[in-house]
């Protein structure tokens, strides 16, 4: 089974002088996965620049190679020769997605309507995450789920000779489930429809359109989105695809600058798609000084540079309906809240329980060992802040193979009174291999812990 070989690598951070300087964000993880998937499926050659070279994304690239695409790194870009829609080959080996929910779930949708068998596995974290959310709609389309216990990885699936199109109401706010069903629809005759009550990140819809799929999105007065895809059409390569920088990675640097006194940094190239900017909105409500500079379009997406200065933060109530636009940012928001005046209340967090770790429990445990007052509910969390970070820190945080838990608590340590250690940092390379290098560039320090 996959995972990081060798021993865990504990690291720590300690109270730091002001962060200063300019850094450029590496590519967005969600869009990078999709660039490999759609480039590999389209007819012709797609050149991708700005791709995130994180382990999660590279695992998606390896899976698509196994199914017939030719994918090569060429200087600063990646060149993908796709197979053509409907023409994937049966993978000869197990598809190992490591730590990646997005890669495994989207690929499962994509191959779930092919009349061949594919076997999926991943690391201990991924093997504990629910896959029924993708397998259920696939079963409705005629996919057989073989060799699988409790709808968890490892598992094997085989599509029907001819898949059946469905209309699927996504039961939870999940861009992965929405995307998996749409990708299953690509190799299905007729129209596959996905209905989502709450809007989640829309990269799949936008990119499918860009690659020439026949896709239509309707939004009703209540904001319910109905997305219809006509299957078995042609997908065309995009000669020059640009991946914007990852706002979920920028989040760590934003919060670092807000909590470390006298900091003043510029983060270049952050995706500003409104389905991804909930954290910035929330931090601004808390009093954060975040200036949006040089807004522009890159790869069909809004992108900007962000100037962030140390700020006196105050606690806020984060509305539940904002959760999808900042779902991966709650761990680091909790760190910002630990330095705010008063209480920050976050609700609608049930999806955090099924990420790389149970993030609600992992955040609460990390706050507890570092002396940050908080209350954990079934799907909510309150954090009471200590401006200046007096008395907090001193703990060693259990990361449970979760990159965002590791990075969040290393940021906490940069401003807390006592150092903060995390039990392992190796999994940070799944989403943000440049993390410690960029923190160093801004003048922060992360060092091995005993
Ligand atoms: O579609 C995507 O690229 C993602 C969707 C989200 O997951 P869910 O769909 O499970 O909410 C998010 O947490 C993940 O990091 C990336
Ligand atoms: C939830 C995440 O990713 P995934 O579901 O792809 O593992 C994440 O990156 O925070």
UniProtKB/TrEMBL annotation:
Belongs to the EPSP synthase family. This is 3-phosphoshikimate 1-carboxyvinyltransferase. Keywords: Amino-acid biosynthesis, Aromatic amino acid biosynthesis, Cytoplasm, Transferase. NCBIfam families: aroA (TIGR01356). CDD domains: EPSP_synthase. 3-phosphoshikimate binds at residues 29-30, 34, 174, 176, 328, 355. GO terms for molecular function: 3-phosphoshikimate 1-carboxyvinyltransferase activity. The active site is at residue 328.
């Amino acid at each position: 089974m996959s995972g990081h070989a060798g021993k865990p690598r504990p690291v720590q951070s300690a109270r730091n002088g002001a962060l200063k300087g300019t850094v450029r964000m590496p590519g967005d993880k969600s869009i990078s996965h999709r660039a490999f998937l759609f480039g590999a499926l389209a007819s012709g050659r797609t050149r991708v620049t700005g791709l995130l070279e994180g382990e999660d994304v590279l695992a998606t690239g390896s899976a698509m190679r196994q199914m017939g695409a030719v994918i090569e790194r060429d200087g600063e870009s990646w060149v993908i020769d796709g197979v053509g829609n409907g023409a994937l080959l049966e993978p000869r080996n197990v598809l190992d997605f490591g730590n990646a929910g997005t890669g495994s779930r989207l690929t499962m949708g994509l191959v779930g309507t092919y009349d061949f068998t594919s076997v999926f596995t991943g690391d201990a974290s991924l093997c504990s995450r629910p896959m029924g959310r993708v397998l259920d709609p696939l079963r409705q389309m005629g996919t057989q789920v073989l060799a699988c216990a409790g709808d968890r990885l490892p598992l094997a699936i085989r599509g029907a000779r001819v898949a059946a199109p469905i209309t699927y109401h996504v039961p939870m706010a999940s861009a992965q489930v929405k995307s998996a069903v749409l990708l299953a629809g690509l190799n299905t005759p007729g129209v596959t429809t996905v209905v989502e009550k709450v809007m989640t990140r829309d990269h799949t819809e936008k990119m499918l359109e860009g690659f020439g799929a026949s896709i239509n999105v309707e939004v009703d007065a209540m904001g319910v989105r109905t997305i219809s895809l006509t299957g078995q059409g042609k997908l065309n390569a995009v000669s020059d695809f640009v991946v914007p920088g990852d706002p979920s990675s920028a989040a760590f640097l934003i919060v670092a600058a807000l909590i470390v006194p006298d900091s003043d940094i510029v983060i270049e190239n952050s995706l500003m798609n409104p389905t991804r900017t909930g954290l910035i909105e929330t931090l601004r409500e808390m009093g954060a000084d975040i200036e949006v500079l040089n807004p522009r379009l890159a790869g069909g997406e809004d992108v900007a540079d962000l100037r962030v200065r140390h700020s006196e933060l105050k606690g806020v109530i984060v509305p539940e309906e904002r959760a999808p636009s900042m779902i991966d940012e709650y761990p680091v928001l909790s760190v910002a809240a630990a330095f705010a005046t008063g209480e920050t209340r976050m609700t609608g967090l049930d999806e955090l329980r099924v990420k790389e770790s149970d993030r609600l429990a992992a955040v609460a445990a990390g706050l507890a060992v570092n002396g940050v007052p908080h209350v954990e509910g079934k799907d909510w969390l309150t954090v009471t802040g200590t401006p200046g970070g007096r008395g907090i820190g001193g703990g060693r945080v259990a990361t449970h193979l979760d990159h965002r838990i590791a990075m969040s608590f290393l940021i906490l340590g940069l401003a807390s009174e006592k150092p903060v250690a995390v039990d392992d940092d190796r999994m940070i390379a799944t989403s943000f291999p440049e993390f410690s290098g960029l923190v160093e560039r801004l003048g922060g320090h992360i060092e091995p812990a005993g």
